[in-house]
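Quick one from the shared queue. A colleague (R.T.) flagged Aspartate aminotransferase family protein as missing a structural entry in our internal table.

Convert sequence to structure tokens.
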Amino acid sequence: MNEISIPRPNNLDAYWMPFSNNRAFKQNPMMLARAKGMFYYTPEGREVIDGTAGLWCCNAGHGRTEITEAIQKQAAVMDYAPTFNMGHPIAFEAAARVAEMTPDGMDRVFFTNSGSESDDTALKIALAYQKAKGQSSRVRLIGRERGYHGVGFGGMSVGGIGGNRRQFGGQLPYVDHLPHTHGLKENFFAKGMPEHGAFLADKLEDLVALHGADTIAAVMVEPVSGSTGVLVPPVGYLKRLREICTKHGILLIFDEVITGFSRIGAPFGCERLEVIPDMITMAKGLTNAAVPMGAVAVMNEVYDTVVNNSPAGIELFHGYTYSGHPLAAAAAIASVDIHQKEDLAGRVRDIEPYWEQAAHSLKDAPNVVDIRNFGLIAGIELSSRPGAPGARAMDILRSCFDDGLLVRVTGDIIALSPPLIIEKPHVDRIFNTLGDALRKAA
């Protein structure tokens, strides 16, 4: 196997790291140099099992030859072509392949370069749709507390994570938020979808009464919230949101940047949850993270309304230089092939009971106050140290890394989302290592 030799860098100053404690990292770096299958390897060659699929994104595992070869082949044929009033075949093929995985009637795909761009794009499409229907008063966008929809000003405004907002002053106007579904005592240590909390969807009716249905364009939620700590929707909650949106002519957008591409046991989470939205945003698993790419899939009626009700010329004044980038399109096609040929969604459903049992085996570990799971996602919530929220989880992240396991932390919540090629011995290794780290941090 050909390997690229990557020395440990001796200058850490130039790179301003995203969503990171730069000062702490540069005092004690955690470096990853290569990856294959279920594993990362440090510059020194130490093996680290990937408990997070990179950043919720390498769903088919690392170093997939099919994707690498597709990118290489396309780069040799054509490295880039514009998609403004011009096209190239592979972008259209990629859109058609994505549409094979989306729900029936959702056959129109707009390409972006990330989940953040996908979420902002979906919000703009929602506003354009309502205007095309002659409902220009529908300018309000509804998100949810603790929601994460990327870091653009649209997604950040509709999102509901305070730490992502407070540095940046004013957000978009005409935005409101539903309450989150986290923390109901009846749901502690629920396995799969918790039983209590569907009533919280009715808070959308309160917002309709407050603002007027004719002012609300769209509601955006994650089917399962990932970045805020694995918040699984209560039974009936999403169905109730769908009913209220349909009743009042409000578009329902599912942010499936995390739950898309088989993560929770179906090509897209909406199918597993039996609730079909009007739009789905995606990224991450779309290309298995080999090349940055995102997309928005919309119901045909949404596309037809915007396109057919627009005057001659450009119908949607929106897009990116790299929308439908040839290399990304090649990676997306190869990724879709893997999901379909290897039935990664079926693999998730097969191993999910074992994953669930292993996650909940940590119930009595020190400082564990809740455990949540769905598909191949798990969240282990910890009590915070007095006066130092998040410190316990960061210590556990470091301990796990030193012992050969990559986890993700958000506040004092440990989040797990491994590659979908995981097998039972990998599950055992992940939770045994995490259990040891929890005891060390007690």
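The longest strand covers residues 368-374.
The domain at 22-60+343-440 is CATH 3.90.1150.10 (Aspartate Aminotransferase, domain 1).
Added to the table.
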